[in-house]
Amino acid sequence: MQFRLKTSKETMEILKQMQTNTNLTPNILARLAISLSLLLDEPIEQFESDTNGLEFNRNTLTGTQDFAYKAIIAQQLGRAITDEEYFPILIKKHLDRGAKLLENEYKYAGNYEKFIKSLANFEMEMVR
């Protein structure tokens, strides 16, 4: 069982730039990225990326909500997933895909305040 994952180089660059722009720590930004990725209907299994970026500890990313993240991912996939598949493989895929979404949301919003408001309303927009 692994307790660490490495993001892609692109994700590392996005998270560092987002940290500069928002003053949010990379672990908070990573959780937001994972959440955005989970809102998409597109399958995550074919998503590929490198492992040349930031290293995260499992507890730092999912903490007390680890079981919830695993359950949501399994539900989205429509099948049971092993712990080895869940972390680091699927969480990393969602993190790397979600980082691009997070970056696009910030660019579209234009500033921190609009960005946070946009994220707060993001799920509501996806449901409609």
Automatic annotation (TrEMBL):
Where on the tree of life does the source sit, at the highest rank?
Bacteria
Name used for this protein in its record: DNA sulfur modification protein DndE
Which species does this protein come from? Thermolongibacillus altinsuensis
